[in-house]
Amino acid sequence: MPARGSTGRSPTLRSAEAGLPPNPLVISTGVQYPFASPDAWSTAFDVARKDDIRDQPAYTLAEAARYLKVAPATLRSWVIGRPYQTGKGPVHFKPLIRPASNPPPMLSFWNLIEAHVLRALRTDHGVKMDALRTAIHYAQRSLDVDRLLLSPELRTDAGKLLLARYGELIELSASGQVAMRRMFNEHLARVEWDNWRFPVKLYPATAETLSAARPIAIDANLAFGRPVIAKRGITTGAIADRIDSGETVDALAADYDLSVDEIEEAVLYERAA
């Protein structure tokens, strides 16, 4: 029986339907892809997203904001856009993320990844939407990649091009660019791609400061896309509920065969969200 969210067709069959090579090829960036070019990746993405559970509406804006630790108003502006007052009158900046369904706006797992990447591009004054949109379009046109914020190219040439152009547009200082690149790479390290180089899992931060630890995971194929303890697949919400009902951390650790630290991380994530 096909897995949840699957059409039952193999990736090789789907690649053939899209006119894509079934075997990985190494392209000029030095990154191994199952496609001959970034453009082929975009074509495959269009084929996959039609019936992939990862691109189906699953999260309200409030839920997504909690899971990503982004201010709800900020996420809403990325998804809906927002008005700005200028000397020539009000201007409405277009959104940076296309929601899986609208209205009301509902986000998919892949939308979560896009918002996670945007979160990494915050400066002292937040994400500069107009400049970032210009930088994204510039990188997409230059490399012929659609939905750049989901592309594995972000880890190579596309990421460098995007950050350089964005930093230039917002007149970011040299030290500010170093800090932004560091934050950007740390956020990308918390995204897991499948063999077809599509985002498959997100390890959200459990604190404002990122660390190498990845105890919490969000996977569209687990617990309906709710945050879980990566080691066991138990939702962080279930852990927090049991703690609130009076059970102890030690008891839950023994019950789920987890460490005390893992139980505490789940609680901290829920309470910080």
Q: Brief overview, please?
A:
This protein has 273 residues and is mainly α. 44% of the residues lie in helices and 9% in strands. The model is unreliable at 1-33 (pLDDT under 50).
Which features characterize this protein?
single chain, 273 residues, mainly alpha, Arc Repressor Mutant, subunit A, two-stranded antiparallel ribbon, 11 helices, 44% helix, globular, disordered N terminus
Strand order of the largest sheet: 1-2
**Mean pLDDT over the full residue set:** 81
Low-pLDDT residue spans: 1-33
Count of discrete alpha- or pi-helical segments spanning 4 or more residues: 11
Name the structural class. Answer: mainly alpha
Percentage of residues in helical conformation: 40-55%
Distance between the termini: 36 Å
Rg, alpha carbons: 20 Å
Largest sheet: 2 strands, antiparallel
What is the β-strand count? 8
Shape: globular
Whole-number count of domains: 2
